[in-house]
Amino acid sequence: MEGLTLSDAEQKYYSDLFSYCDIESTKKVAANGRVLELFRAAQLPNDVVLQIMELCGATRLGYFGRSQFYIALKLVAVAQSGFPLRVESINTVKDLPLPRFIASKNEQESRHAASYSSDSENQGSYSGVIPPPPGRGQVKKGSVSHDAVQPRTSADQQEPASPVVSPQQSPPASPHTWRKHSRHPSGGNSERPLAGPGPFWSPFGEAQSGSSAGDAVWSGHSPPPPQENWVSFADTPPTSTLLPMHPASVQDQTTVRTVASATTANEIRRQSSSYDDPWKITDEQRQYYVNQFKTIQPDLNGFIPGSAAKEFFTKSKLPILELSHIWELSDFDKDGALTLDEFCAAFHLVVARKNGYDLPEKLPESLMPKLIDLEDSADVGDQTGEVGYSGSPAEAPPSKSPSMPSLNQTWPEMNQSSEDTAIVHPVPIRMTPSKIHMQEMELKRTGNDHTNPTSPLLVKPSDLSEENKINSSVKFASGNTVDGYSSSDSFTSDPEQIGNNVTRQRSHSGTSPDNPAPPPPPPRPQPSHSRSSSLDMNRTFAVTTGQQQAGVVAHPPAVPPRPQPSQAPGPVVHRPVDADSLITHTSTSPQQIPEQPNFADFSQFEVFAASNVNEEQEDEAEKHPEVLPVEKASDPASSLRVAKTDSKSEEKTAASAPANVSKGTTPLAPPPKPVRRRLKSEDELRPEVDEHTQKTGVLAGVLTSQPPLPRSVGKDKKAIQASIRRNKEANTVLARLNSELQQQLKDVLEERISLEVQLEQLRPFSHL
Amino acid sequence: MVHTSLDVVDEKISAMGKALVDQRELYLGLLYPTEDYKVYGYVTNSKVKFVMVVDSSNPALRDNEIRSMFRKLHNSYTDVMCNPFYNPGDRIQSRAFDSMVTSMMIQVC
């Protein structure tokens, strides 16, 4: 073809792609799966791809030489830009963007590389690997393609039949059917469908190896239908029928079909999705996993204990070593139990392994437990990562990066919420980066956001910033309880709820900062912890109406003067003492300050909110003790956290005690801002309570009159505790990352030193 | 040599009734004339003992470094323990654990 002028970036990009496709290092890429996949990933219509092939001369030569390959890539870019495909367009189109390929497929290709290596033309394999987006079927396709030796036509014909059949097979039977299919219809193609349903437990690789012979003959045919197959993941049959002759495409279709139709065939789903964009979980698969999760743990927000998970995964007949590795990868928070996300990730990995895919060294991004609100962003992140079409999809970026981005993503959200109001509804959302918890939080939050009037719960996260690794179960429990509380508190007036939501949001923001980047702990939920009682207060206020409001308002002011005299001993004390809570709250806040900078602000808050928070404080204090016992100090860090929690709870109790006392006296001593924030929540909770200034007397009256609401307080506490736990977990995760980074830093420094020494040694010689 | 170290660790454990988690340095004096190595001991709350033997060729690792190494070791070990598929007492085959240990050793050397 005519000379091709490429820019530097293009040159590099193309050479990378060529290397990628040139798996046999023959410097000429036959129509192997990689190339096909690549072209498919370009998301161009089939005929366009065919045209490109012809233009670049591959059809003529029968393979892709380097120049042909480059030309083809250039043409792909041209086509993607919307320009007509012409030979001269190669050099005439200026500033052409690099051809875009769906990266995922590359990874898949790399995965299949081993099995496909023998297939010079594995177009079929590519089909399997192809671009993820619709993705799931891809995996299957890949394997199928191997088998598709038959001519495309035959494959096509078979596909329709086989895919349909395979998906419908029950998982256990699928392996057999899979095999059979491959045998029957012209061999390769049929296998594809089988691959789809792929017996979950049958080694996927076997099928692939068998089919590898099949693909062969690309012979310059147009690349398999581009992503159409992928896209039609859900529409299996239609796509298959449309598939052109390419075995690969056929396979894709079949896989797609199988995937789509495999309602019961979990394997299929798993297969297809496991390598889709390397490790993305399709919806079907996810649904399957969720169902399986339910069989073990009816509560989707609950944990599966290690022993149960062990039994379950042992059924997969994978070697213990591999199961152990899978567990390591999927137990994100290292708590010995699997949340729904962790379970899905583990299941996904098992499926992938069953299908012959190697386990990654690090948990792929798509399998990372999603933090709340990060689902989309995380997915996006995953996809972007995959775009790099650089093999080893399995190797997700260092665990830190996945988590960081997610955290960061969540963080912004949290921040927003924090802005809302001082009193954030203690949504049981995990503020800490820990994805798992985030997810839980998300679940909880979505469910509880508006039902949980207890804003103080939000406070927890900040408080327990160090509790990174709190058992997820524990957190979960607390989260659950929080949720429960919130719902029970739903009776509170709307304002309260609003306030709660606000506080929750705040707390979220507070927790989130910990993770991604230690953003200064925003109004740590802690204040809200103390405020938790405020929620109760709010309720009580609402119940008691106006006068209480005044009283409540007055409390906060009253609190400051108290030095934390009465450090109520255990959390139990909190409940009964509303007034005290204010005081103790204030007193605790100072103590808490060292723990967290926010405390400083909160202390003041607490003072103000003491009245409102009294109950909350009590709850918090109570919650802390609850949390503490639950938490398992698996390591020193966790014990540390526990200790912190304890201290916190104690402080709270102490604060609450004095708070009551001071109710009558404290004017608005506490900094107006912090108070205001608290009050804001309170105000929101209780619209009536606007002036926190007034009412010392009323406040006192209110405090005393308000019947402690153990329920709300407890809920708040639990929510706070849950958030604290989550934060702690996030903290531990971060701490680990930190230690790893430090180690790396040390290494680098040592190297540097050694190099310098060498340099010094050489210096004298240089003068000689 | 390692067995001797274990004996010493046991001795220390029984001696001290508390603070088992302290990283105890085992006999910096455990330097035999021919084998210049140091043995460090570390015991966890669950009486799991870590013994680290290092050559004294390095400008002797600082105590802090040893402590941090033990901390990391402990962390990794707990992670391994969390795995339900791991039977206590088995040889640890966790890749993450191994990589952590390897990196530590490389760093030291």
From TrEMBL, chain A:
Annotated EH domain residues: 10-113, 285-369
Biased segments, Pro residues type: 515-526, 557-568
Keyword tags: Calcium, Coiled coil, Metal-binding, Phosphoprotein, Repeat
Coiled coil residues, start to end: 720-758
Annotated Low complexity bias: 547-556
SMART domains: EH
Sequence ranges of Polar residues compositional bias: 115-126, 407-418, 470-504, 535-546, 583-595
Domain EF-hand: 318-353
Compositional bias per record (Basic and acidic residues), positions renumbered to this chain: 643-653, 680-694
Pfam families: EH
GO CC term, one of those recorded: cytosol
Listed GO MF terms: calcium ion binding
GO process annotations (BP): endocytosis; endosomal transport
Ranges for region Disordered: 107-231, 380-418, 445-575, 582-601, 608-720
Name used for this protein in its record: RALBP1 associated Eps domain containing 1
Organism encoding this protein: Phyllostomus discolor
UniProtKB/TrEMBL annotation, chain B:
Keyword Transport: yes
Keyword entries, A-Z: ER-Golgi transport, Transport
Residues in the signal sequence: none
Pfam families the UniProt entry points to: Sedlin_N
GO cellular component, one term: perinuclear region of cytoplasm
Listed GO biological process terms: endoplasmic reticulum to Golgi vesicle-mediated transport
Compartment annotation: Cytoplasm, Perinuclear region
UniProt entry tagged with the keyword Transport: yes
Record family assignment: Belongs to the TRAPP small subunits family. Sedlin subfamily.
Protein name: Trafficking protein particle complex subunit 2-like protein
Record organism: Phyllostomus discolor (pale spear-nosed bat)
Gene: TRAPPC2L
